Give the backbone structure.
Amino acid sequence: MSTNSQEVQGGGGVTATADALALIEEIRKRHGDDLIFHQSGGCCDGSSPMCLPRSDFPLGPADHKLGEIGGIPFYMNEQQFERWAHTRLIIDVVPGIGGMFSLDNGTGRRFLTRSEVCDVPTTAADSPASRQS
């Protein structure tokens, strides 16, 4: 549960630390395999990654799958994804109280999203010289 946790698993634009994977396994043992992650957009639970029973969170056409962590699909709203498109999410665990809807609540730990900006490809139109004209 530290900021020095190593990233060990993931796919697409999301990875997870060893601490996050351990908490996922604890949650899976208590709640089963039919789980889903959704990156909250900042309402009730701030911008926390929430782990939920799949049946409690119906996906809509605007939900974008980033990948999987610990074998659990990880989604984010399309508008939020567009803003974070060049960011890799790193799901970690810190001491604290989880989101009111998330299954990490009551464990004394909570999931936390860390991020890393990825290289953004540029074109000739994006160059400083082209903006001066």
Summary: Strands lie at 7-11, 14-17, 35-39, 49-53, 63-69, 72-77, 87-95, 109-117.
